[in-house]
Amino acid sequence: MVALPYGLAMARLMGLPVEFGLYTSILTAPITAILGRNPVLIGGTASATVPFLAAVVRAQGIGGAAKVGLAASVFLMAFGVLRLGRYVAKVPHAVVSGFSCGVGTMMVILQLRTLLGLPVGGPSSPIGQLVSVAGMFGRARWEPMVLGIIVVGFALASARRWPRSPGPLVGVALAVSVAAMFGWHETPLGRISMQFPALAEFTWRATDIREVLPPAFGLAIVAAVNILITSRVVEHFQGRHRPLRRGDADAELGAYGIANLFAGVFGVPPSVGIPARSLANVRCGGTTRLSNLLHAAFLLLFLQFGSELIAHVPMAALAGVTTSIGIGLLEWSTWRRLHRMRRLDASAFLVTAAAVLATNAVAAVAMGCSLYLARHVLARALAPRPVAIGAGRAES
Fold it and tell me: What's the pTM?
């Protein structure tokens, strides 16, 4: 129930068939459940992966998503083989928070056209979209706005008051009921294909070295950090405060790399650790690998027998789900303590968040990390060099 609206919304945001957001969990769960080190860690399509896939999907379609997913899977497995998992998790927290904030802002901006009932299209960049929507604001319709506000409002309120409830899904149900009650005929999501996704068709080109490998490498880094951080959060929630064993992080990355390799051949988005699903699993009593398998099984059953209900969900309601996810990623706690943070951490947070909107996700992470690298190099250059005592006596 938690995964359904999120998975559909994430796939739509990437430009992929919406059911692909559910097949991510269905295809990868058996592998991560068997090979992964954390038995209750639930994987799926995450918002952090959207920027890396959306651009290549616009340019190359499902085949482009397959190429990026496969290359990222190879990078993940390489991280595990080279035992880099313990180092990938050390990406500065301020950079991760800034990336989350930038992605959340981007998600909200990209949903404005649907929430306001404006024609879909326009510039591909978030800033260009914001300027375009501002110029067309006078043409906005209030019906989709109401449906979106219902979903966003209930999702945010339930997260605070009833954290165990599937708030976004209930919000979507309320929006559908309101639309039916007042006879609003908003654009529906439409029928979801119940067929297993076919193998993605693509060919490797020489230009993929610069068009596919950079976003794939960035996707692998973000996925690795996401997987390891989520695993640690879940263990902490279970009361296991001991740090991971040296090989656990590398094995977890290897498991997700193998699982995503299987998903990538179908063009399905890669799977990463999902905190909301994992913590819901723990709250509901999940303790073994069977909980991960059952999560995928229930998704498959709902996809097979509940597609008629999903087909009538208004696009504005689904945009409300995405918007609520984006609002939740805005790192409000970081903003509140920004004035108390070290200048370096605050600068890295702001630079990374702004770069996600102005450039791309790969450049944003690189720019945020480069501040720490520059500080390290500068500190080494300005550090006083030790004087050799023996040489000083010889000169005297």
Answer: 0.71
- The DSSP secondary structure of 87-151, one letter per residue, reads HHTTS-HHHHHHHHHHHHHHHHHHTHHHHTTPPS-S-SSHHHHHHHHHHTGGG--HHHHHHHHHH
User: Which residues, in sequence order, are CB contacts of 384 under 8 Å at separation 6+?
Assistant: none
Q: Please report, rounded to a whole number, the percentage of residues in the chain having pLDDT higher than 90.
A: 32
Judge whether 272 and 223 are in contact, CB under 8 Å. Answer: yes
- Which region, left, alpha or beta, applies to residue 342 given φ > 0 means left and ψ of -120 to 50 means alpha? beta
| Those residues with Cβ within 8 angstroms of residue 304's Cβ, 6 or more apart along the chain or in another chain | 194
Q: Are 28 and 265 in contact (CB under 8 A)?
A: no
Q: What's the CA gap between 17 and 195, in Å, rounded? A: 12
Question: Which ranges in the chain belong to alpha helices (H)?
Answer: 3-14, 20-35, 50-81, 85-88, 93-110, 112-115, 126-135, 142-161, 167-182, 208-211, 213-237, 248-264, 275-283, 290-305, 307-310, 315-328, 332-336, 343-358, 361-382, 389-395
Domain ranges of the chain: 3-331
Cα-flanking dihedrals φ and ψ of residue 337, to 5°?
Answer: -105, 15
DSSP one-letter string for 12-43: HHHTS-TTHHHHHHHHHHHHHHHH-S-TT--E
**What is the token pair recorded at 332?**
């409000």
Each residue's pLDDT tens digit, 159-182: 778 766 777 788 888 999 999 999
State which amino acid sits at residue 213. Answer: L
CA angle (42 as vertex; 357, 238 as ends), nearest 5? 110
SS3 314: strand
Q: Which two tokens stand for residue 116?
A: 């306001």
